Amino acid sequence: MELTVDSLLDEVRLAGLSEKYGTPLYVYDGAVIRRQLETLRSLFPAEAGVEVYYSMKCNPLLGIAQLLRREGCRVEVASAGELAAVLEAGYPPADILFTSPGKTAEELEWAVDLGICSINAESLEEIRRIDRIAAARGRVADIAIRVNPNLEQKTAGIRMSGVSSQFGIDEEELSGVLAELPRLQSVRLIGFHVYFGTQILSADALLAQLEDTFELALRYAEGSGTPLQFLDIGGGWGVPYFAHEAALELDRLRAGIAELWLRYAGRLRGTRIAVESGRFLLAEAGVFLTKVLYRKVSKGSTYLVCDGGSNQHASSAFLGRYIRHNFPMRVLGRSGPSEPVTVTGPLCTATDVLGQKVELPAAAVGDVICVDKSGAYGLTHSPVLFLSHALPAEVLLHDGGEYVLRERGRVHDVIRGQLPLD
Ligand SMILES: Cc1ncc(COP(=O)(O)O)c(C=O)c1O
């Protein structure tokens, strides 16, 4: 069967998958991932030769990493676990970036031994540590400095620039750090990295941060007389989740990037441009399926209590946020007049709410709720140990095939690795 990018909208297929694999269940559509990747690539002029790095943190499934490798992506990791997964997925070290504010000595040793594309260093102390590690091995490690630019990305869902943070080196500290580099013989600065924030939906804001990045990187590279070999412009490309959000204006973005490229191409000749992306590639490619266990009314409000909740899809429950909006969701196989219901998981906490007063067609016990736009920051972003439920299965539909990427967990998984007292 030929899968189209609309295949996830096929409720009959999803209902069949929920029966076959049980619930809770994540389902992904490879065609949507491919479409998003093509869209992202199409935003940049071909002559810029932009390299797309998949941010593993958004969905660290081995099979997804493999799919994106086959599609020509490189990869960005943030831990030894993610590094292990991408090596297993077949990424060569030269295609791997490592970014995280808290890399351990062991993680850095591994990255240096592998000779990955770039360790994106987040502090002077970390650069010194990489230098010592590389020196002890008689190697020279390629690094990029992650800069915390002064430009604040006010439109980002989570801001990671222009404000005080554990990420990167503040722009105003950069000169001092660069001045120390000549004394560190075992690191080689190949360029810079910025990451302004996630879930940015404004084309103008993305263009402003891109221009700021070009200016910043070129100013320091040209000022130090070192060619800018590598520039990681970060990610943060958003997708609309909620009724009040509009999708990125792609044509406007494409035209704006083309115009920027015209202005900067000369100064960026010979520079490898990297873009990182997680959410944009994956969010719309996945759904979370959870079954209604009970339907009840409490003080006039209707509740659908389901078998999977915020322990497996914390993003939908908006854990840790003050303002909540409901993820788009539907009841498989049901249409007709809607009613306001609160969709909860099975946890013994009032925060276990996947959808609050969401308008859904009347659902009965045994019906399956489908939470859309769940491909990024779903299971990986969730407190999966809370209340000791087994992990959901994860299935990929791709090129006509159906692949189990994660088997359903078993009840006893929860005590694996624990040692009894007696
Ligand atoms: C350094 C870095 N790169 C890439 C990403 C992925 O961002 P997104 O999923 O918004 O594309 C993140 C997310 O937090 C990040 O911190």
Automatic annotation (TrEMBL):
Domain Orn/DAP/Arg decarboxylase 2 N-terminal per the UniProt entry, residue ranges: 33-282
InterPro entries referenced in this protein's UniProt entry, alphabetically: Ala_racemase/Decarboxylase_C (IPR009006), De-COase2_C (IPR022643), De-COase2_N (IPR022644), Orn/DAP/Arg_de-COase (IPR000183), Orn_de-COase (IPR002433), PLP-binding_barrel (IPR029066)
Gene Ontology molecular-function annotations: diaminopimelate decarboxylase activity
Every Orn/DAP/Arg decarboxylase 2 C-terminal domain range: 25-375
Gene3D superfamilies: Alanine racemase, Lyase, Ornithine Decarboxylase, Chain A, domain 1
PANTHER family assigned: DIAMINOPIMELATE DECARBOXYLASE, GROUP IV DECARBOXYLASE
Entry protein name: Orn/DAP/Arg decarboxylase 2
